[in-house]
Amino acid sequence: MYLYMGQQVMVPEEDLVGIFDLDNTTWSHRTRAFLDRAEEEGRVISVGEDLPRSFILCETEEGEEVVFLSQLSATTLAKRAESNPWTGLDSPMNNEK
């Protein structure tokens, strides 16, 4: 399955590490330092041009961390990640065993 983050950007759910609300997490100096370092290393991808409301931490198959900034709320993204519209359907998209 994939998580749709807006602006035609999707990531495989197995790469998803966490979904974080920017307002609630950036008060921490550790979170700010992490995001600053990721930005310096070129590992931050902005999903849209609007003010971001959340960030999504992903880990690629190669073990590299990537941060996506999204204008969608963390709550909306979490609901999308939790829902699986293909559950129970005989669909090529449903590869669960």
Question: Would you write up a description of this structure?
Answer:
The protein is an alpha+beta fold. The chain has one domain. The protein has helices at 22-25, 29-40, 74-82, and strands at 2-6, 9-12, 16-21, 44-46, 54-59, 65-70. A 4-stranded mixed β-sheet has the order 3-5-6-4. It has a two-stranded antiparallel sheet with strand order 1-2. Strand 1 and strand 2 form a beta hairpin.
**Largest pleated sheet:** 4 strands, mixed
How does the overall form come out from the CA principal axes? globular
Count of domain modules: 1
What percent of residues adopt helix (DSSP H or I)? Answer: 25-40%
Q: Spatial order of the strands in the main sheet?
A: 3-5-6-4
β-strand amount: 25-35%
User: Helical element count?
Assistant: 3
What is the straight-line distance between the termini?
13 Å
Low-confidence stretches: 86-97
Q: Total strand count, please?
A: 6
Structural class: alpha+beta
Along the chain, the helix and strand elements come as EEEHHEEEH
Mean pLDDT: 85
The radius of gyration is 14 Å
